[in-house]
């Protein structure tokens, strides 16, 4: 069973059809890319998949269960996590506390236990701290655990955002332009990080990206979006060599 199926989803804002009859099937463990020029509707699709928007038409299935129109909180609990084009960390919180926020759905104590500082509170907090440190080690951020998130270099802030998303224990991870603003060395490191996350967390990943080197380097399947419509879909190398894609997107 596919991890994600979007079936003929559409959404309009006023008279503008931002996404028109979009469908995609993503299998477990795939590294899937979604590309297209600015304004093509890519982030709108992420917002539909995560419950920020409700489609006017179509259905969204996660592991066969219909999540169409559910709230972002419920969709996250169902197993979908995302990062954003513009980094959205809790900048005045520590690095480790940012990750612990992502672990909130794994809390195992009551409000009374927290207020009264009962043993269950301390046991759970100790376990959450240990889990958060394990994730930080994956991204080589353990030495900055006590730093304010705002004091991290840009590339490490990107890594922290991915670590926080993974803390929610998702089945599907959505990355919105993870290489935006990175230099070539940071982008190469990010490619290795994304591969590592897929392979070691048994993760399915859908990413939006403009960096064609990154896309061609890690994505196995690809959908090209243009003005809300699917222009091409399939194997990455074949899609990138499609004459329509070259004309409409790559501009060659």
| Widest sheet: strand ordering | 6-7-8-3-9-10
**SSE arrangement, N to C:** EEEHEEHEHHHHEHEHEEHH
Say which CATH homologous superfamily of the largest domain is assigned.
Answer: P-loop containing nucleotide triphosphate hydrolases
Number of H/I helices: 10
Please give the radius of gyration in angstroms. 19 Å
- General form: globular
CATH topology term of the largest domain? Rossmann fold
Write up what this structure looks like:
- The protein has 252 residues and is of the alpha/beta class.
- The protein has helices at 42-49, 72-78, 95-102, 111-116, 119-138, 154-167, 184-200, 212-218, 236-240, 243-250; strands at 4-13, 16-26, 31-35, 57-62, 65-66, 80-82, 172-176, 204-208, 221-226, 229-235.
- The strands form two sheets. It has a six-stranded mixed β-sheet with strand order 6-7-8-3-9-10, sandwiched between helices. Strands 2-1-4-5 form a four-stranded antiparallel β-sheet, covered by helices on one side.
- Helix 3 crosses helix 5, helix 3 packs parallel to helix 6 (154-167) and helix 5 packs across helix 6.
- It is globular.
Task: Name the features.
single chain; 252 residues; alpha/beta; Rossmann fold; six-stranded mixed sheet
Condensed summary:
The chain is α/β, with parallel strands linked by helices. Helix content is 40%, strand content 24%. The model has no long low-confidence stretch (mean pLDDT 88).
Task: Map the helices and strands.
Blueprint: E1 4-13, E2 16-26, E3 31-35, H1 42-49, E4 57-62, E5 65-66, H2 72-78, E6 80-82, H3 95-102, H4 111-116, H5 119-138, H6 154-167, E7 172-176, H7 184-200, E8 204-208, H8 212-218, E9 221-226, E10 229-235, H9 236-240, H10 243-250
Parallel strand pairs: 3-8, 3-9, 6-7, 7-8
Antiparallel strand pairs: 1-2, 1-4, 4-5, 9-10
Helix pairs in contact: 3-5, 3-6, 5-6
């Amino acid at each position: 069973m596919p991890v994600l199926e979007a079936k003929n989803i559409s959404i309009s804002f006023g008279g503008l059809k931002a996404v028109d009859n979009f469908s995609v099937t993503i299998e477990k463990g795939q590294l899937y890319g979604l590309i297209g020029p600015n304004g093509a509707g890519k982030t709108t699709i992420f917002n539909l998949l995560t419950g920020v928007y409700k489609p006017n038409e179509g259905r969204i299935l996660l592991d066969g269960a219909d999540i169409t129109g559910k709230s972002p909180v419920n969709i996250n609990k169902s197993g979908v996590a995302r990062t954003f084009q513009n980094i959205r960390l809790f900048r005045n919180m520590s690095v480790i506390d940012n990750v612990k926020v992502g672990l909130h759905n794994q809390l195992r104590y009551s409000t009374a236990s927290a207020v009264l500082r009962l043993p269950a509170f301390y046991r759970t907090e100790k376990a959450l701290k240990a889990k958060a440190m394990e994730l930080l080690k994956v991204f080589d951020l353990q030495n900055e655990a006590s730093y304010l998130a705002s004091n991290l270099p840009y590339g490490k802030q990107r890594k922290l955002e991915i670590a926080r998303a993974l803390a929610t224990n998702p089945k599907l991870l959505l990355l919105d332009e993870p290489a935006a603003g990175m230099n070539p060395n940071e982008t190469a490191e990010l490619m290795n990080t994304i591969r590592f996350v897929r392979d070691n967390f048994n993760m399915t990943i859908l990413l939006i990206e403009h960096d064609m080197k990154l896309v061609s380097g890690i994505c196995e399947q690809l959908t090209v979006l243009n003005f809300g419509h699917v222009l091409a879909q399939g194997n990455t190398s074949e899609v990138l060599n499609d004459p329509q894609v070259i004309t409409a997107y790559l501009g060659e």
